[in-house]
Amino acid sequence: MNVRRDTDGTLVLRLPPPQVLITRLDNRESRVISRKTGLLRRADINLESRARQYAEGGIRGEAVRRGILPMASQNAETKLAAFIHTLGVAKVRFDTTPARAE
């Protein structure tokens, strides 16, 4: 996070971009419905793990497609501004321009 104060007293903050850190399935509510193997095919012991990883990736992808990152950014700005106002700072602004590479 980058913080500076403008000449008019406005506190200007640049937040890091939002990101999805963790996606998890509820193990208590998920289960294998059917495991069928053929005569010449053995059971795949890693099938359930791969299926969970695939599902978690799908959850993450769908959340991003539905706009969770902009929503997270807006929520962070709203909550952080409210907190900063309780500290006595009258004006807060968020700088959303991309950070320069140094």
What's the topology here?
Elements: E1 2-5, E2 11-14, H1 47-65, H2 68-86, E3 92-94
Describe this structure in words.
The structure is a single chain. This protein has one domain (1-16, 47-102). It is built from 2 helices and 3 strands; from the N terminus they run ββααβ. It has helices at residues 47-65, 68-86; strands at 2-5, 11-14, 92-94. Strands 1-2-3 form a 3-stranded mixed β-sheet, covered by helices on one side. The protein starts with a strand and ends in an 8-residue tail after the last strand. The model has no long low-confidence stretch (mean pLDDT 88).
What labels describe this entry?
2 helices, 3 strands, single chain, alpha+beta, 3-stranded mixed beta sheet, elongated, 37% helix, 102 residues
Question: How many helix segments?
Answer: 2
Number of domains as seen in the coordinates: 1
Helix proportion: 25-40%
* Sheet with most strands: 3 strands, mixed
CA-atom Rg in angstroms: 23 Å
Order of helical and strand elements: EEHHE
- Protein structure class: alpha+beta
Number of strand segments: 3
The overall pLDDT average reads 88
Give the CA-based shape.
elongated
Strand percentage, roughly? 5-15%
In brief:
The protein is of the alpha+beta class and 102 residues long. It is built from two helices and three strands. 37% of the residues lie in helices and 11% in strands.
